[in-house]
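re the bet — no i am not wrong, look at it urself. input seq straight from the record:
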Amino acid sequence: MAACTTTYFEPRRGWTARVAERNTELLAQQPMRRRGALTPEFFFVKHFDNSRLVKAPDPVRMREMRIFSAAVTVLFSLVMIYGLQHFSAIETSYRVESEKQALEQLREQNRQLRLKEAELTQPERIDTLAHQLGLAEPQPGQIIHPNAAPGAGPVLAQLRAPSPAAP
């Protein structure tokens, strides 16, 4: 429905005649607009003069609007704080999970290194490598135990305090 407002400045014809003519024009255009629908449309002119209306201040309504605005602001703030805490907790849980995965990877790597150390320190392997390099077993007296008492075996080097020089 299209409403067209035009003003005719013809002093000879009255307002009702112009409205009737406009309604007739619109009624004639309807079949073309609606593709065969035959519902008539009529437009009535209503004149409202609101120029003398002045909005009076309503202190009760203003107070209600301020209270409503404050309540909405507080509610919005609480929702935003809740959202911030919620997303912070989610982010922290993701960080904890990634740290757990890193810890598991480090534990697995530590286990692999301990296995490798145990494999490399096997006496049979060391003996085999020593024979391949042409090394022989130590002779008796060549082995010095660090826990042995002093003087129990051969001494390779000693540290002696310098003797006072004779004049």
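see?? The chain has a mean pLDDT of 82. told u. also The first helix runs from residue 15 to 34. so pay up
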